[in-house]
Amino acid sequence: MVQVETKLRVADNSGAKVIKVIRVLGGFHKATGSLGEIIVAAVQEAIPHADIKKGQVVKAVIIRTSKEVRRKDGSYIRFDDNAAVLIDKNNLPIGTRVFGPVAREIRDAGYTKIASLAKEVW
């Protein structure tokens, strides 16, 4: 669960390393976002000579959260960090690789390209 001002690790090779949430999309005054939701964020750290620059405003999908999420079978899934993958206007990932595990809820939310790029889907 992330909210405004939350810093997230970027789990792809787009060039950004850390982003800060500006807005959680999906409703009027939506306060928090969870797995598979789109956020608007500002790039806080980026690698040199990349297409994504520090201060740039981007859209991203949340793929990991430290706050546990309950699944329909009653189990809970929780990760060690908060992470996101940058997306373009067509909701496709900007990077060509996704690092670390990705929650199964990402595939259920319709981001099959992100799930297929991930090494493991939990």
Tally of individual helices: 2
Biggest beta sheet attributes: 5 strands, mixed, barrel
Residue windows where pLDDT falls under 50 for at least 5 positions: none
CATH architectural name: Beta Barrel
The side-by-side strand order for the widest beta sheet comes to 2-3-5-6-9
Shape verdict: globular
Task: Compile the SSE list and pairings.
Blueprint: E1 2-3, E2 7-10, E3 16-24, E4 32-33, E5 38-46, E6 57-64, E7 69-70, E8 76-77, E9 83-87, H1 104-108, H2 112-117
Parallel strand pairs: 2-9
Antiparallel strand pairs: 1-4, 2-3, 3-5, 5-6, 6-9, 7-8
What does this structure look like?
The chain is mainly beta. It is built from two helices and nine strands, in the order βββββββββαα. The strands form three sheets. A five-stranded mixed β-barrel has the order 2-3-5-6-9. It is globular, with a radius of gyration of 13 Å.
Task: Please supply descriptive tags for the structure shown above.
2 helices; 5-stranded mixed β-barrel; 122 residues; two-stranded antiparallel sheet; mainly beta; 9% helix
Summary of the model, kept short:
This protein is mainly beta and 122 residues long. The protein has helices spanning 104-108, 112-117; strands at residues 2-3, 7-10, 16-24, 32-33, 38-46, 57-64, 69-70, 76-77, 83-87.
